[in-house]
Amino acid sequence: MLIDSTSLRSSLYDSQAKWGVSTRYHWFKGYKLHLCTTAEGNILSHVLTTANRNDAAVAPESLVSLKQWDIELVLGDAAYDSEKVRQTAEQAGILFISPINRRNSKERKDAYGRVLPVLLKTRFGQWLFGLRRGIEQVFNELKSDGVEQPRWYGFHRYLLHVLCCILMHNFEFLL
Asked: Which domains does the chain have, with CATH numbers?
């Protein structure tokens, strides 16, 4: 299972959209789509938030929704490196792995901080995190299918549009 988010720009005149920061757009006004997908690209969980929400703040909500799928392992990027995320995953019976976010911590002295950098240097660790390309591919497919629509005004209209795009994306797995 993979977890990540992507930026969805909105109109500058959208009063419900918020300003946020992304690696691609830097400062932008809009929303963020948080997804949990399988390695094959099937979307199992989603959350749409305003752009000013931190990934780690939304992750517990996504992880709790995965209980019904009997998921055992979730991979996230460094934005999800949070003690709260790991505790929520542990309570759900999920092993959560993400690289250490250097901006949020000094030298980590807990077991997670000592073991994870070593894991990421092994061939298995590199292969494991190479699977994260799958969720990036899902975001690219959704965006090329038109999920990012700056013409939509308002959170609920944007949410309806995103839900339709996710539904159409998941139909591919039924055929």
From this structure: 2-174 (3.30.420)
CA gap 23, 6 in Å, rounded? 10
The Cβ of residue 148 has, within 10 Å, a number of other Cβ atoms equal to: 22
pLDDT tens figures, 50-67: 999 989 899 998 888 887
pTM here is 0.86
Numbers of helices and strands, H then E, in the chain: 6, 6
Residue with tokens 């390309």: 133
Kind plus residue range of the DSSP H or E element containing 50: strand 43-50
Identity of the residue numbered 16: Q
Pairing of strands 73-75, 43-50: unpaired
Q: Is residue 23 helix, strand or coil?
A: coil
